[in-house]
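User:
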Amino acid sequence: DYYFQIEHGGLIRLYRVYVPKAYSPDKAAPLLVAMHGGGGDMDYMAKDEYYGLQTKAEKEGFVLLFPNGYSKFASGKFATWNAGTCCGDARDKKIDDIGFIRQVVKNVYNQMNIDKNKIFATGMSNGGMMSERIACELADTFTAIASVAGTDNTTSFKPSRPISVMNIHARNDDHVLFEGGAGEGAFKDESKVTDFTSVPQTVANWVERNS
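Assistant: Predicted structure:
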């Protein structure tokens, strides 16, 4: 595990990088950017007992990048992503999370031997929504995304090229409702979320964008 902080957009931003033991500078490795849910942080997303990403990275040989969303706290706790119409302070303050993700991926690419054709993003809930926005705006950099419990809440962006998208969503999700809207499990302050796009509409959006 390596911990970094950089200045971006006038803010101090945080991220972690996990390098599997099998990594060798002589061979280009895939890179997976994994983003936490709203109100979480990079350390929570990096808990292997919750998400199993380090175990998978060791098995498959990919490098893991855990960026931290915007937080008003120096610790980076209780962070959110500006994924379009959601969520929280990151959205309300119009935080440049696309620019931040582009920068940290570039940093890792410059520090390590990364396969530029195998850069992926995934995320949970608000982090899944951020991966949807990445697919819309950073298709020149990312190969594919997998959104877990998040839907497409972008605002009229079109990817520069077709990009592979996987959406994983529970029908009984009480935060981001499968059929659209915010459920009882979402933020208690309704102003911090949005009327979430449904999973069927999210899929339809990508079918149209990817032709």
